[in-house]
Design goal:
The structure is a single chain. This protein is mostly beta strands and 191 residues long. 0% of the residues lie in helices and 46% in strands. The strands form five sheets. A five-stranded antiparallel β-sheet has the order 2-5-10-7-8, with no helix packed on it. Strands 1-11-6-9 form a four-stranded antiparallel β-sheet, with no helix packed on it. A hairpin with a 6-residue loop joins β7 and β8. The chain starts with a strand and ends in a 10-residue tail after the last strand. The C terminus is likely disordered.
Length: 191
């Protein structure tokens, strides 16, 4: 399999509404010493334009405890040439501080190459979250590829420490013409 990770700083995103980039100072534990604050107002947003493809979004954040429970923000994705579509609410557990004790929230979501990602306070129960960065990560699995010749997917029922990820193998590459194509692999990945 091929794993990858790309990081985007929140303060470099396109900010909307009341959201503002804030330099935290040299003593900050924030990535790049800055984060996006003032996100409690309806319409506050961060937009990351034209991102690389991924199947997992990791959001670095801080959030103080709120009497109503975890903080919540709305996640939107705009595929290339399309408008934003609200994908889901993302909840954030309290970190105990607005500047430090950063945490990460993992969201499994397919994001096509060239899409825009927006985190937005829609009101309707959304609450303040301070954002540090996002990471786009993913994994290409050979068993999800396009097979040719006699090659195929095989389920490996035994969970071994060094066994197949996801429990499946791509196998039977004995003859000329047997192969697997993994479409949509991002530039820079190597086999």
């Amino acid at each position: 399999n091929l794993a990858f990770s790309d990081k985007y700083e929140a303060e470099a995103a396109v900010l909307g509404g009341s959201a503002a980039a804030n330099y935290e100072g040299e003593g900050s534990t924030a990535s790049n010493k800055a984060q996006v604050i003032a996100t409690g107002g309806t319409g506050a947003s961060l937009t990351f334009d034209h991102v690389k493809a991924a199947n997992r979004l990791i959001i670095g954040y801080t959030a103080e405890a709120d009497a109503s429970g975890p903080s919540k923000y709305s996640l939107y994705v705009a595929k290339p040439g399309e408008d934003f579509v609200r994908m889901q609410d993302v909840t954030f557990k309290p970190t105990g501080s607005w500047s430090g004790n950063f945490a990460e929230r993992v969201v499994d979501i397919d994001i096509p190459y060239g899409s825009d990602i927006k985190l937005q306070n829609d009101g309707h129960g959304d609450t303040a979250v301070h954002f540090d960065y996002i990471k786009l990560t993913g994994l290409y699995e050979a068993e999800n590829g396009n097979f040719s010749g006699n090659s195929r997917t095989w389920y490996h029922a035994v969970n071994e420490p060094k066994g197949p990820s996801g429990g499946y193998w791509a196998w039977a590459f004995a003859d000329i013409g047997d192969g697997v194509e993994i479409p949509g692999v991002r530039g820079g990945n190597q086999v």
